[in-house]
DNA sequence: GCTCTGACGCCAT
DNA sequence: CATGGCGCCAGAG
């Protein structure tokens, strides 16, 4: 019995998100694709909303395909998401991650799918 | 049991 | 180049 039960779709998303290194970011689509559901990027973001009560899931490190903090609105209503990213060394400009490609963490590569 | 919505992504216009 | 609509899967009403 592991600390994380990967019985459902949520747990799978949490497992990947939890492996995102500090100062790095990934996209919903990248995680979705890694899970085998490339077209279900929405499910990933949706799962994240349910992960708000989880400290193991750094949802602030997950952004959309454009590197924009789309979920910022769900992050307490303030710019908390951007603050968290900048605190980790991620440059963010107007909810847009700078050098997004440089800090992009792809599970398909890092986890070697 | 059916319908609507939803932290996205890509194609069409 | 910008805007809109459809598709995907799963939970909640």
UniProtKB/TrEMBL annotation:
One of its GO terms (biological process) is methylation. Keywords: DNA damage, Methyltransferase, Transferase. InterPro entries: ATL_DNA_repair (IPR052520), MethylDNA_cys_MeTrfase_DNA-bd (IPR014048), MethylDNA_cys_MeTrfase_DNAb (IPR036217), WH-like_DNA-bd_sf (IPR036388). One of its GO terms (molecular function) is methyltransferase activity. Pfam families: DNA_binding_1. Residues 9-90 form the Methylated-DNA-[protein]-cysteine S-methyltransferase DNA binding domain. SUPFAM superfamilies: Methylated DNA-protein cysteine methyltransferase, C-terminal domain. Signal peptide: none annotated. The keyword Nucleus does not apply. PANTHER family: 6-O-METHYLGUANINE DNA METHYLTRANSFERASE, ALKYLTRANSFERASE-LIKE PROTEIN 1. This is Methylated-DNA-protein-cysteine methyltransferase related protein. It comes from Zunongwangia mangrovi.
């Amino acid at each position: 019995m592991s600390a994380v039960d990967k019985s459902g779709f949520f747990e799978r998303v949490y497992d990947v998100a939890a492996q995102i290194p500090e100062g790095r970011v990934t996209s919903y689509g990248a995680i979705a694709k890694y899970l085998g559901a490339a077209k279900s990027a929405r499910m990933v973001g949706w799962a994240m909303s349910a992960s708000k009560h989880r400290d193991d899931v750094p949802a602030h490190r997950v952004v959309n395909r454009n590197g924009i903090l789309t979920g910022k609105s769900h992050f307490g209503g303030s710019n908390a998401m951007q603050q968290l990213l900048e605190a980790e060394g991620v440059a963010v400009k107007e909810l847009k991650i700078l050098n997004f490609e440089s800090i992009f963490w792809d599970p398909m590569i890092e986890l070697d799918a």
